């Protein structure tokens, strides 16, 4: 029995920061009795813990708590295997007492660890990951295994830094409760989406829950996406970084504590994780994306300005907004409609009265080089008279819907009333979905889809008839899910999908719908980013860009909040500042809720309208740079909107009110009301004001910048050459505009950059050699003379480029 103070192993980390929670269940007041029934230590904390956050645990594992031992380790072609055994059962049902451990030295910078049940196959995330064929020859990591209790220690060979040490708390592996803890190498942890929080996570007893959920972004709740990956900057100012990815889609808690340490607590699947060695943050992200897949190259117009709102009410009213934008010469590439275009909220229909001119509007958009995107929800109305709604009738015929365990169709409730939910884990569903899209496209030639509500969201818990009382519905441990139940505002966890139960498949629903929507490449559909672009909020002062930066780390670069805010009334100043900031979101869409006043640029005063127009023209002028950055994301897993995380400068580690495009263009937006200045941090070096060319030589300091309402601060880092173009009101027209290069010379007079250019629409231009990739360099020839930018085409695309003009900031 544990003594209250807890004996410790000599040398073990001391103190409260290292107490691992033995009673994470929510809504339970942990008593000594409950705690000691688990053979844990009980010490009620006297200190104050912030409301909503679980503070220092009162009940925690004592040293020597039963865990697994490692036996029979063998060398294999790719690493090692071993067997983990345990004799004492835990307080959760169905302990798996014998486990198979597999260490895979996949590349010099990637280690994979799998812990599985040798006697029974368990659910694994159905995504293709790269397979190594030979063991890494000179890994940047070393692995030590602790036998008793079992643990894995991963070190960076070059510095000896301990990146992972799982001996810090007992390992759990029960059917529905798997838990792995580790020390962290520092307090600098990023990623772990999707949550509303600062870019740099707070590790003070902060538990993040993952389980896809449709809810306005709120702190401390699970949100739309689930991304169990973190990036960590290592201690000691070396500037090295590593990453960790748990390949698991079940509902989970990720508990951070000040040790610094982390606990992964998932309720299904297996423990299958990767460690990425970087060594710099950009390489870590690239290595992570090598596993989960690089982002899709967006079609050029996806990078233009998008206008949307819920409740235009009619196609004519929507069309009027587009015409107004044209009259004022304000850039716009894409017009959207929210759900109100539909007839009785039915998918694949449009309202024959209020949206009768929708097909004409779409044709008009096309004739102006503009595009149309509309919302589409997965819920298919199940209550239309037979023969009157093809999507449902045909769906039933083909058996595409998710069922209850008894084989009946699961019915939930969404906008059109009662609905069935397509099972996108089945290929048959993909064909049916495609047929629906094609039938609708024949009437309304849309260009893109906004696939929404695919958490999947339902207005009832589980189904209209509830859910059966099973182990999947009521697991022994439920992570900190909003609503307290897996089925809260979604489908029954026990619901049956082709690949597996909804319990396992829930957080993959949106991803699989996105795959179905791109099937056949028939439409110009771009999805990545739109799947989870709800990083929206009411108030700019409360919502700087951390969500956007986090998504860029997670391989979703095409991201941006709803410009000017979705819910609540916007204000002119807020909307101007937000449009300026939004001009630098990789994805920029103005969107608001039903019953709010219009917030498209023409709805404001001439002064505000002109400020918005200027910021959008600025974005359009920078399109060649943005497009090139997306190419880099697509081919190398680089970020587009990039945090100011300069590895060697610890002062940049927490900055999320400024960011960069690529490595050179720094954006310092105003995020507070009623000010005409902004304070920004300038990492050491030479920076140029993008508009005036004035230079700032920073020692690594904060600077106060002028920021009148019509101005967004932009600075170019030394040593860059960036491609720009003369802007126009659509990117299509702009693509024929003259290109321009801006270079910012470094102290030694050099600069470099690149341009990727193709027709903006054809996919696979890289594979078919229909593109230009040009590298630019500037060299100093005499003390005051710089050879004009020299360029050479690296690939294909002869004759596709206009003459280049150049300017140099010195
Ligand atoms: C790993 O953690 C254990 C338990 O806290 C500790 O005793 C050990 O020293 C750690 N090992 C390393 C290499 O840090
Ligand atoms: C929309 O505008 C067209 C053309 O001006 C007009 O014929 C039609 O009646 C309008 N539709 C509605 C629903 O107001
Ligand atoms: C759901 O039930 C229908 C009708 O029995 C069947 O055709 C379909 O395959 C079932 N779907 C799943 C995922 O089991
Ligand atoms: C856009 O291009 C058109 C035609 O080339 C031109 O008339 C117009 O002035 C341009 N607009 C802007 C804002 O440059």
TrEMBL record:
Tell me which Pfam families the record gives: Gal_mutarotas_2 (PF13802), Glyco_hydro_31_2nd (PF01055), Glyco_hydro_31_3rd (PF21365), Trefoil (PF00088)
* Segments forming domain P-type: 10-63
Q: Which GO terms describe its cellular component?
A: membrane
Locate the region Disordered: 790-810
Annotated SMART domains: PD (SM00018)
Task: Give any single GO term for biological process.
Answer: carbohydrate metabolic process
- UniProt-listed CDD domains: GH31_MGAM_SI_GAA, GH31_N, Trefoil
Q: Which molecular-function annotations from GO does this UniProt entry contain?
A: alpha-1,4-glucosidase activity; carbohydrate binding
Where in or outside the cell it occurs: the entry states: Membrane
Q: Which gene encodes it?
A: LOC115147680
InterPro entries listed in its UniProt record = Gal_mutarotase_sf_dom, GH, Glyco_hydro_31_AS, Glyco_hydro_31_C, Glyco_hydro_31_CS, Glyco_hydro_31_N_dom, Glyco_hydro_31_TIM, Glyco_hydro_b
Q: Any idea which UniProt keywords this protein has?
A: Disulfide bond, Glycoprotein, Glycosidase, Hydrolase, Membrane
Q: What is this protein called?
A: Alpha glucosidase 2
Name the predominant localization: membrane
Which family is this protein grouped under?
Answer: Belongs to the glycosyl hydrolase 31 family.
